[in-house]
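The protein record filed below.
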Amino acid sequence: MSGLGASGAAAVPALQPLVIGLASANPGVFPTLARQFVHKWASALSGEFRNVESDTPLFRFTLQLSGLYMRGFEEIYFLLVPPFLQTPLSSLPALLEQTDASHPFIVLCPHRQQYASLSIGSFHGRVIIFSPEIISEILSSNGSRSREAFRRPIRNQIDAIRLHPFNTTQPATGEMFFGRQEELNMLQTNEAAGFLITGPSRTGKTSLVQQYLQICRRGKNPHTRNVFYLDLQVCAHLDEDRIARVFAMGIRDVPGITDRIQFSELRSFLCSIVHKVKEPLEIIIDEADAVCHTDLLLTVAEFAVSSGNRVIVVGRGAVRQFWRKHQASSFGRLHEIRFQALSADEAWQLFLRPIEALGLRVETPEETKQTLLRYTSRNPHLVQGCAQLVVRQASTTNTCTITPSMLAPTDESFRDFSLLRTQLEDVHSDLARFAAVEVLKHSQEGLQVPTLIRAALCERGLACTMTEIYDACDDLVVNWLLGWEHANYAPPRWDLFKTAQHHRDYLDGVQRECLERLKARGR
């Protein structure tokens, strides 16, 4: 058990009368007191009940909590141990087998002698025992104080490596979804027939639509529509008819119909779904770049715009290029939401709140914040990556203090060649791609201003107008191959620049190919 995150010794609180009552209750009184306890416990932690069960000697209940910033503790199974049981945890193995292994069990033991005799043995890490004193401290507090009292025994029994909620491979959900409130409000309140959400990989586009989807499923969306989410990444190499089948089965799988549907029948199929459910549809299409070689987006947008339905299309550079190419169509009239970095405060809170929840203390907050912003460019993916590095270092060195130097990532930890390649492939023209490579190679010399980019391209034999250069720079900003700070162009994202420095041969090859194609077209 690591000492990371453990707080200093707290004053032992006087036991709550309810805890004292539970510790001496007989079988006839215990269920009544237990139900009183459950309601008071949920109120102290601002939790939401899922169920209460008392079909075994152990009184069980499930609580959904938010704001803990601990992985796996969004929903928790509690066992309230009666004082009259001789072997209180004998049924625990069977209970653990019946429940989702991702959810922890917290055993609440209000009886001191019983608590001292309990042993979780092989269940260490999934089962946590709370003493009478901890239980009383939580019941005696409220808000942030009760949450901190709740976290303390968890931190003392589980290492921070296993507890931290930072994840760079999955969409951010729940309390780890930070910022994007303006975009979320727009999806909820704007009556537009459709939106196009564009931005580079790993900037939070999927996290945004997943958050919106959860709001809709909880019935808190003002739009009365049936909402469907489709990830079309698997469609990249499929023809129109097979894409139509994947799409139709994502809306409603009707054996014998959706598995045989032709692309030409897709719109009539969507109209039939509206007729059956008697409500408009809202279709969220994620990873839409995969279908830009077909007319699917045009068909779905036309269906949405002309019949009171709605479509939200999520993608990167290929989608944006497709959208610009079809400005005169219904798809071209979708309202664009261009993803930018988080605000400085949002990026800092994404880092700080979970760090503090783990019991870690930031030694010099302002210096640490500025270091974080410099390394991450306020990108949520990189913020979480830096936070993971910090937690690992703190756990390895068994320290609770975070210093700015701990945020300095190694080159290896942030190099991602596949991401660099994707960003360059998403750029919409050879001219812009050529310019992007120039910027990546020479941004340390200040090559990020449009006039300097134009001069550099002219030296390479590419005469360009300033309109073409600004158009190219706009495309680079969308793909974070150029930054945008305070209405001025800025260096490219830090991790992409670092990766580029270790793949100069690849960049040279990209430029040669672009230059050949541009000269073949008479540039």
In short: The chain has a mean pLDDT of 85. The longest strand covers residues 48-53. The chain has four domains: 17-160, 180-338, 344-409, 417-520. The radius of gyration is 28 Å.
